[in-house]
Design brief:
Distance between the termini: 53 Å
Shape: globular
CATH topology of the largest domain: Aconitase, domain 3
Radius of gyration: 24 Å
Largest sheet: 7 strands, mixed, barrel
Strand content: 15-25%
CATH architecture of the largest domain: 2-Layer Sandwich
CATH superfamily of the largest domain: Aconitase, domain 3
CATH class of the largest domain: Alpha Beta
Bound molecules: alpha-methylisocitric acid, iron/sulfur cluster
Number of domains: 3
Number of helices: 23
């Protein structure tokens, strides 16, 4: 046990795993963490006895969210399941990613999604209303609920004490149909906060500090649960910044207790009746405890090209800056905008800097208008971009060429994601971004004298009008007459073949550690409009890392991919599995996988192998042929997890860590085929 500190008035303990694997903890009757409480209160029917950490568990999903870039596939899959109406307490379809509308494609997707929402009983958040996570937090999030979203930053909702998890669209489609969500019972890492933020340190610096310590793979199959006296010094929007960017740790989710500040947040938005107090039990066990003294934090920046490449802003001071963008789903509260306004008041954006605001919600923009914040930002020279994802995924506002330095309050800085291949993106707090916008160089905002604004009254007075762009579900009688609108770019979701027994797979691509889903299936203004058309978007698989991947895959009639550790980190985009599947990829062999991407591979019937004892990765080279025999025996026998593959006369042992459900999906050729088989 670590030196125990009060956990909201009670001592938590660090659970020390014995041996190399995690100890199974019987949950019922023992003191529980908040995460355990939410999971236990949502166990799906037939889930059996008390689940143990590290073992598969199925939970009931109360709420779902989809966004347009992943939502069209999710809705096509939902339609294919034949349900008449969503069966969740609440499902919301957001339009926020593909809003550039360079031609008909994006708008066709919007109309398709709007008509599906009307037909099947979902809420619909119109383009311009804001980014799914920010709007969901403000308008729908509720303590103690489960939320599954087809976007990796769904855990933003953890700021309200809900268990909010990102997944592929197919898993969300199943949850919309009333199905449970299956996951590994996560490890639970306690983050004990003490002190209070001081000077120019911001909530963003809390999560950057955690990324510095834990890295982008530190949280795989874990949930970070926050507790300790420092929690009470962080308002819900600050907690949301931290929970949002927990996705960059690779975590399943991040969860804060629901306390008096949660109550105030909900009451200020006219939703006070949803509040309930939630916290961990005295003596709850954590797999490890991480201590952060908020008062010791100083401004930090995640340097190019990874969110865990964190340095002190003071060490980067003086670096010339070409672009500053504020907003995204990470830093879009009125407090964030007010902090920027306080710094830029009476000043003008430096001539070298192109500055923009991509605010995550229209409600925040309206409140910022009332508070006089928006006017201050416009006056100082910030360009007000649409309330949407925009620059965060290269949908406009790309930096200049020649190694531009872009400071963003966003959550991802993968190479090329900004739309400019050689730009270097630094992830920083709104305060650090604002200081750089004025100075034209990275600057410690602590050196500037600023006065904060009390934003609360402006939030309260804008709640009502912010609902105008949300369309509520239609009643069933009206819904049944709705015709679904399908534009010509919306193509059916392709299917994988059932698993072969004996197969030879050419290695089409070999990458290193931390390959992102942006690497596998890039986003950006050119590619994103093709999200509803797998045959077309497949032409862009690995297009920045391996420009001839498509031709290679076509010529070989499919094959395998080899990667290092944390393969598929980053987004939830199913397209990073669907498009390779369409090109005939049947296996990915990696040192380890990111959680959501691994689940997406299985849903697409792509075998996710790891190396036994981490070995043999170096032995595999591009163009090698992996010969698998008796794959059916591997998939049908739950006691078997290792298979020998022959490669150019050698044999390498590969591991398939898969539970019964995964094996069934892989055998059938993916989740849709498995579902069809079951229904037949
Ligand atoms: C992202 O931030 O990478 C995205 C774009 O929001 C993705 C979803 C997508 O690719 O559509 C995510 O985070 O899951
Ligand atoms: Fe949108 Fe960026 Fe947030 Fe993804 S990370 S949801 S692209 S704002």
């Amino acid at each position: 046990m670590t030196n125990a500190m009060p956990n909201m008035g009670s001592p938590p303990q660090e659970k020390r795993p014995k041996g190399d694997s995690m100890q199974n903890t019987m949950l019922n009757g023992a003191p529980n963490t908040l995460v355990e409480k939410i999971i236990l209160s949502h166990l799906a029917a037939g889930a059996g006895g008390a689940p143990a950490r590290g073992e598969p568990v199925s939970i009931v999903i109360d709420q779902t969210l989809t966004q347009d870039a992943t939502g069209t596939m999710a809705c096509l899959q939902f339609e294919a399941m034949g349900a008449e109406r969503v069966r969740t307490e609440l499902s919301v379809s957001y339009i926020d990613h593909n809003t550039l509308q360079e031609d008909y494609k994006n708008q066709d997707d919007h109309r398709y999604l709007q008509s599906v929402a009307a037909k099947y009983g979902m809420w619909f958040s119109r383009a311009g209303n804001g980014i799914c996570h920010q709007v969901h937090l403000e308008r729908f999030g509720a303590p103690g609920k489960t939320l599954l979203g087809s976007d990796s930053h769904t855990p933003t909702g953890g700021a309200l004490g809900m268990l909010a998890i990102g997944s592929g669209g197919l898993d969300v489609a199943c949850a919309m149909g009333g199905g449970p969500f299956s996951l590994l019972f996560p490890k639970i890492y306690g983050v004990r906060l003490s002190g209070a933020l001081a000077g120019a340190a911001s909530a963003k610096d809390v999560i950057l500090e955690l990324l510095r310590r834990e890295t982008v793979k530190g949280g795989v199959d874990a949930v970070y649960e926050y507790f300790g006296p420092g929690v009470a010094s962080l308002a819900v929007p600050q907690r949301a910044t931290i929970a949002n960017m927990g996705a960059e740790l690779g975590a399943t989710s991040s969860v804060f207790p629901s306390d008096g500040l949660t109550k105030a947040f909900l009451e200020n938005r006219g939703r006070g009746e949803l509040w309930r107090e939630l916290k961990a039990d005295e003596g709850a066990l954590y797999d490890k405890i991480i201590d952060i003294d908020l008062s010791a934090l100083t401004p930090l920046a995640a340097c190019p090209h990874s969110p865990d490449n964190v340095k002190a802003v003071s060490a980067l001071a003086g670096t010339p800056v070409d672009q500053v963008v504020i907003g995204s789903c990470t830093n879009s509260s009125l407090d964030d905008l007010a902090a920027v306004a306080a710094i830029v008041r009476g000043k003008t954006v430096h001539p070298r800097v192109s500055a923009g605001i991509a605010c995550g919600s229209r409600a925040t923009l309206l409140a910022a208008d009332k508070a006089g914040v928006l006017g201050e930002l416009i006056r100082s020279g910030f360009r007000i971009l649409e309330s949407a994802c925009g620059p965060c995924i290269g949908m406009g506002f790309a930096p200049k060429s020649g190694g531009a330095v872009s400071l963003r309050t966003f959550n991802r800085n993968f190479k090329g994601r900004s739309g400019t291949a050689d730009a270097g993106v630094y992830l920083v707090s709104p305060e650090t971004a604002a200081a750089a916008a004025i100075a034209g160089a990275i600057t410690d905002a602590g050196e500037l004298q600023t006065e904060r604004l009390n934003t609360l009254p402006f939030v309260q007075s804008t709640v009502q009008c912010a609902d105008d762009m949300l369309l509520p579900p239609l009643p069933p009688e009206a819904a049944k007459d709705v015709a679904v609108e399908r534009g010509p770019n919306i193509k059916p979701c392709p299917l994988q073949e059932p698993a072969p027994d004996d197969v030879r797979l050419v290695i089409l691509y070999k990458g290193g550690d931390n390959i992102t889903t942006d690497d596998i299936m890039p986003a950006g203004a050119k590619v994103l409009p093709l999200r509803s058309n797998i045959p077309e978007i497949a032409k862009f698989v690995f297009s920045s890392l391996c420009p001839d991947f498509y031709q290679r895959a076509k010529a070989a009639g499919g094959g395998a991919i080899v990667g290092g550790s944390n393969y598929g980190q980053g987004s939830s985009r199913e397209h990073a599995a669907l498009a390779p599947m369409y090109l005939g990829v049947k296996a990915v062999v990696a040192k380890s996988f990111a959680r959501i991407h691994r689940a997406n591979l299985v849903n697409c019937g792509i075998l996710p192998f790891t190396f036994v004892d981490g070995g043999d990765c170096d032995a595999l080279i591009l163009g090698d042929e992996l010969h698998f025999q008796a794959l059916h025996t591997l998939l049908d026998d739950p006691s078997q997890s290792v298979i020998d593959a022959s490669v150019n006369g050698r044999t390498i042992a590969l591991k398939l860590e898969a539970d019964a459900r995964d094996r069934a999906l892989l055998r059938a050729g993916g989740a849709i085929r498995a579902l069809r088989e079951r229904n037949a």
